[in-house]
Amino acid sequence: MQKVLNFLKKISENNNREWFEANKNEYLEARDIFNSFVEKLIAGIGTFDPSIKGLTIKDCTYRFYRDIRFSTNKMPFKTHFGAYICPHGKKSGYSGYYFHIEPKGEGFLGGSQLDTGLYRPEQKILNSIREEISLNGDQFEETIIAAKGFRLDDDQPLKRVPRGYPADSPYAEYLKLKNPILCKQVDEEFILDKNLLENTIKAFNKTVAFNTWLNKAVKYAFEEK
């Protein structure tokens, strides 16, 4: 992963099309290294979460080119690589496992991290999750506790418990969530460890109960007419 980090550090300092075209081979090498890792990561997660078996690289990875049409940030390229491994692929609406590699202090998340959960879910999915929390909040809490080394991270929660739920609910803070995500920030030492793949698989295995719980609610939402 050293070559991946090296490239990402360079693109963060030279985020323009001229530099990118002159160094495209370095990008392609970094991308191929990352994709090879993700392919093995999919297989590894599949050993404890069969719902993601059969996914391909294309199902889980994103374009490196940024869509700058409606953004004030006009840098044409990302400064990270990311892969979202979830049932039926990254656009399915299901909860999954996100692997993110980025130099510390740069770009999208300001560093590398492992996430499990949902970011900006559709309203009907969020409603279904809140309904499940109101009925089985103790189970939801147990899945969070089981994810040792991860923390529940939503930087955009509601200020109040949503309408229709008791303000004094013991699970009020969970009901306020808009992005139910477990997060584990990792440093460069973690990314460059020779056992990165094994360590990442082991970490995500701790979040499988959380992911499965969320996807039960997602499935309920999709089944509603």
Automatic annotation (TrEMBL):
Protein's UniProt name: TIGR02453 family protein
Listed InterPro entries: CHP02453, UCP028451
Top-level division of the source organism's lineage: Bacteria
Classification via Pfam families: DUF2461
